[in-house]
Amino acid sequence: MFSHLPEPVLDPILSLSVAYRNDPRVDKVDLGIGVYRNSEGQTPIMAAVEKAQEIVTQTQKTKAYVGLAGCEEFNASIARVVLGDTPVYDRMSVIQTPGASGGLRMLGDLLHVAQPTTTVWLSNPSYVNHQPVMEAAGLQVRHYRYFSPETKQVDVAAMLEDISQAKQGDVVLLHGCCHNPTGADIDLDTWKLVTELANKNGFVPFIDLAYQGFGDGLEQDAYGLRYMAENVEEMLLTTSCSKNFGLYRERTGAAMVIGKNARDAANAKGKLLTLARSTYTMPPDHGAALVKTILTNSELDSLWRRELSEMQQRLKDLRSGLCNELRNIQLSDKFDFILQHKGMFTVLGFTAQQMLQLREEFGIYGVGDGRINIAGLSETQLPYVAKAIAAVGE
Ligand code: LMR
């Protein structure tokens, strides 16, 4: 049965974590997988989450099944975090999913059921898991140009030119904020132009929102997608609580469908539920119970918002700290683009060979595509990491 299976291809991000763990060097630095770390190098449990955990432990009286859609109070609350006051609630539906990856897969499966020949357009580059998930759902994948290696910013003209080839029935996947891996985001004007193209050419936007709150702030990071949601007939969206609630291992996320009308949204939800039933039946409850507890308790909600904005501010400080170190070493603004990038990641513009050199010579682990996780840095490591980047980037 299994003898013909090929050797496994390692996941480029998850395999890095294993290699890092096995590296005996004491001054090694993990800038690989996208997790937030504090100045002590820990990924802490947020105080709001700890308090919610106490409440859940004290009040939860059963571990009986919840339902195929997960916790409906979680679904309603997380939709509010993402969409705010956008007037789409009467034509949308939400299900809880195992992380945003689970949401991506469920929505990919829904697209395949709705139209097996669907082509999904991904940015080049995009999150390493986008293409495998969409292909596993049986969809075709094409790419649109996104990142300019010269400016280290979004090449908006090239992006729009490629997206304008997406036609009726195609799907265009956009990162809601904090683009993974580049850190280069589109501005509100570009969101408006893509919205215009969606309406003119008939493609469906699909938003992956995994880092809300880490860019310019919880509300600001959603302005673009909210504008789009209000102004298109149909849209798909998946969101994650891994990063902004620090619930990585609890696998907590949601998938949302905005339809032309309430009936379409309800039918899409019905189909999503049968897909969930034949995949995992229902999502794990614990993370969603914590998020619901936080979002429905004004004290915990304010605490969570405060903690998240402190994390966001620390990321900004780390970015400018790294830039300053690099400026002082290089006596140039060559790496100033790091300051303009948003969220956890930055693409340095290094080749796979240079990333290997960073890892082998300096014990600095970034992804082979040139991505480093700014949130993996600590203040004390900045001079060391800057020196290494400058040496490799010579
Ligand atoms: C990342 O890109 O590092 C994270 O989103 C973790 C993952 O699931 O790959």
TrEMBL record:
<keyword id="KW-0032">Aminotransferase</keyword>
<dbReference type="GO" id="GO:0004838">
    <property type="term" value="F:L-tyrosine-2-oxoglutarate transaminase activity"/>
</dbReference>
<dbReference type="InterPro" id="IPR015422">
    <property type="entry name" value="PyrdxlP-dep_Trfase_small"/>
</dbReference>
<dbReference type="GO" id="GO:0004069">
    <property type="term" value="F:L-aspartate:2-oxoglutarate aminotransferase activity"/>
</dbReference>
<dbReference type="InterPro" id="IPR015424">
    <property type="entry name" value="PyrdxlP-dep_Trfase"/>
</dbReference>
<dbReference type="GO" id="GO:0033585">
    <property type="term" value="P:L-phenylalanine biosynthetic process from chorismate via phenylpyruvate"/>
</dbReference>
<keyword id="KW-0663">Pyridoxal phosphate</keyword>
<dbReference type="InterPro" id="IPR015421">
    <property type="entry name" value="PyrdxlP-dep_Trfase_major"/>
</dbReference>
<feature type="domain" description="Aminotransferase class I/classII large">
    <location>
        <begin position="27"/>
        <end position="389"/>
    </location>
</feature>
<dbReference type="InterPro" id="IPR004839">
    <property type="entry name" value="Aminotransferase_I/II_large"/>
</dbReference>
<dbReference type="GO" id="GO:0005829">
    <property type="term" value="C:cytosol"/>
</dbReference>
<dbReference type="GO" id="GO:0042802">
    <property type="term" value="F:identical protein binding"/>
</dbReference>
<comment type="similarity">
    <text>Belongs to the class-I pyridoxal-phosphate-dependent aminotransferase family.</text>
</comment>
<protein>
    <submittedName>
        <fullName>Aspartate/tyrosine/aromatic aminotransferase</fullName>
    </submittedName>
</protein>
<dbReference type="GO" id="GO:0030170">
    <property type="term" value="F:pyridoxal phosphate binding"/>
</dbReference>
<comment type="subunit">
    <text>Homodimer.</text>
</comment>
<keyword id="KW-0808">Transferase</keyword>
<dbReference type="Pfam" id="PF00155">
    <property type="entry name" value="Aminotran_1_2"/>
</dbReference>
<dbReference type="InterPro" id="IPR000796">
    <property type="entry name" value="Asp_trans"/>
</dbReference>
